[in-house]
Amino acid sequence: MAFSPENRGRARTIVARYPQSRSAILPLAHLAQDQDGWLSDEAMQEIAELTGVTAAQVQGTCSFYTMFKRDPVGKYLVSVCTNVTCLVLGGPELLEEMRHRYDADPDVTVEEVECLAACDGAPCMQVNYDYHELLTPDAAAEVVDEYKSGKRRARTVSGTAVVGGGRA
Ligand code: FES
Q: Which atom of ligand 1 is the closest one to the Cα of 81?
């Protein structure tokens, strides 16, 4: 079983809210990711059983949304935008620097993402879904290092347990 006993109870309560059980797939995927920080095969299997669909259908639904992580992620999820505005203002260089600095760091997962809807602050990135804008590669590394050293407090990697937050 993927869900903890407590979360299994929550999951059943969520399913009961919907006229059709399958409508609970996304809320249950959020619950699983809140619990583990990512969406495991076991979690998708359990969601399938709870909602009366196949695990492939759960995977098909969840794979559409980039916020669902299919592999374990580090304590700090660094999401670097390389979409159009960030692309021309240094997003790729930011991404390259983040990958270079943190590739071997198990606490940090670096991902390339589409537009974060903060184009006026390009180039930008998020760390555990908190925004950091108008960055240079060195400034971005400084931000990440401040999280790692405890100078900045982060949300959990699943985006819950907010401490501070919002665009900065
Ligand atoms: S293009 Fe990067 S935030 Fe929009």
A: 2
Q: Tens digits of per-residue pLDDT, 124-139? A: 999 988 999 999 999 9
Which residues are CB-neighbours of 161 under 8 A, at least 6 positions away?
A: 155
Specify the pLDDT at position 158: 63
Name the stretches of the chain with pLDDT < 70.
157-168
Best residue for ligand 1 mutational test, from 89, 93, 116 (most atoms within 8 Å of Cβ): 116
Residue type at 149? Answer: S
Among 86, 155, 137, residue whose Cα is nearest residue 116? 86
Indicate whether this model's pTM tops 0.70: yes
Q: Domains plus CATH for the chain?
A: 5-62 (1.10.10.1590), 76-149 (3.40.30.10)
Q: Report pLDDT for 159.
A: 54
Query: Could you give the strand order of the β-sheet that contains 76-81, starting from the edge strand earlier in sequence?
Result: 108-113, 76-81, 125-127, 130-132
Cα–Cα distance list, 122 to 14, 73, 88, 94, 112 (Å): 38, 25, 9, 11, 14
Q: Which helix (H) or strand (E) holds 84?
A: helix 84-89
